[in-house]
Amino acid sequence: MRRPDAALPLSACPALVLNADYQPLSYFPLSVWDWQEAIKAICLDRVDVLSWYDRVVRSPGLEMRLPSVVALREYVPQDRRPPFTRFNVFLRDMFTCQYCERRLPAQELTFDHLVPRSRGGRTCWTNIVTACSECNLKKGNRLPQECGMYPKSRPHVPTMHELRRNGRHFPPNYLHESWRDFLYWDVELEP
């Protein structure tokens, strides 16, 4: 049986953060703020509150319900080039080894240089693919044509839109019911 919001500890009351167009800033990881950041943004008049928890916080001169969904008042452009990070490479490749095509948790993945660093390869979007440890070791410091291991997809610089779309395949473990009207997943969620 689900506990009412009023019984939740403060740490279990994150606020879903939406851009000014009411779309999440990111799906994976899901854009959320802890309750303190959400209250601060409200006090600084930077967000509109779209939904509330039943949980209340109090100070000597104020009582406030905790927000469960907030939308930024100013739109944050999302079409910028995504930063090159290990996580974003995994997200681009859908957490799937590009050689054996197994989907694995991030902690079990590595990234592989198509042209190995020992042979002048750079660490950049177009030379890196997601690989499981076994495939990475098997390929070693060889070129794909030398070992017959070709990646499933050609490595490329993803757009923010592509990473957001890919993130929609990985819903988080926790979703407050007030968030469901603002999130659109590409997989079936349990009620």
Overview of the structural elements:
- The chain has 191 residues and is an alpha+beta fold.
- It is 18% helix and 21% strand.
- The protein is built from five helices and six strands, in the order ββαββαββααα.
- The protein has helices at 35-43, 86-92, 133-139, 144-147, 160-167, and strands at 15-18, 32-33, 47-59, 62-72, 109-113, 128-132.
- β3 (47-59) and β4 (62-72) form a beta hairpin.
- It is elongated and about 70 Å long.
- The model has no long low-confidence stretch (mean pLDDT 90).
Number of helices: 5
Rg from alpha-carbon coordinates: 21 Å
Helix content: 10-25%
Q: Strand-residue fraction?
A: 15-25%
Overall SS class:
alpha+beta
| Arithmetic mean pLDDT | 90
- Main sheet attributes: strand count, strand direction, barrel closure: 4 strands, mixed
* Terminal residue distance: 13 Å
Number of strands: 6
Strand order of the largest sheet: 2-1-4-3
Helix and strand pattern: EEHEEHEEHHH
Stretches where pLDDT is under 50 for at least 5 consecutive residues are none
**What coarse outline follows from CA principal-axis ratios?**
elongated
Can you summarize this structure?
The protein is of the alpha+beta class. The chain is built from five helices and six strands; from the N terminus they run E-E-H-E-E-H-E-E-H-H-H.
